[in-house]
From TrEMBL:
It comes from the Bacteria. This is DUF1761 domain-containing protein. It holds the Pfam family DUF1761. InterPro entries: DUF1761. It comes from Pseudidiomarina aquimaris. Keywords: Membrane, Transmembrane, Transmembrane helix. The chain crosses the membrane at residues 6-27, 54-74, 80-105, 112-134.
Length: 135
């Protein structure tokens, strides 16, 4: 059996990257208004959210995502190119597609699906890049 090595520093950085990418993606600089409108979220609702709870749960879930991706990328031949490709394939081909299915049943708009699906794809691609490069 082949020995698998997980770089936990890479997993930690890729985990934190979720907050960085999400902060930029859902900022007024990029897709905040499109997301807010398509999700039906008001400014008042945004002001009322609990950041400690949201960021804590986000970090835990992001760590699960990244540790899982790290296990998929743990083979000795992994480099940044394969990491990025695998991240893209997992983000676009699996995570975004199941998100679209769920969104269709919830009767969400195309804008909603594109904003979130785009974020998922970009995040997984960058997480794969970090984990693959730091193998």
């Amino acid at each position: 059996m082949e020995t698998m090595a997980i770089n936990y520093w890479a997993v930690a950085v890729a985990t934190l990257l979720n907050l960085v990418v999400g902060g930029l993606w859902y900022s007024p600089m990029l897709f905040a208004k499109v997301w807010q409108r398509s999700a039906g979220i008001t400014d008042e609702q945004l002001k009322a959210f609990n950041p400690a709870k949201v960021f804590t749960i986000t970090l835990i879930v992001s760590w699960v995502i990244c540790i899982n991706l790290a296990f998929f990328l743990a083979s000795p031949g992994t480099d940044w190119q394969w990491g990025m490709t695998a991240g893209f394939l997992a983000g676009f081909g699996w995570a975004s597609m199941i998100f679209v299915v769920i969104s269709l049943f919830e009767q969400r708009s195309l804008a909603y699906m594109l904003v979130h699906g785009g974020y998922i794809t970009v995040y997984f691609t960058l997480a794969g890049l970090v984990i693959g490069a730091w193998q």
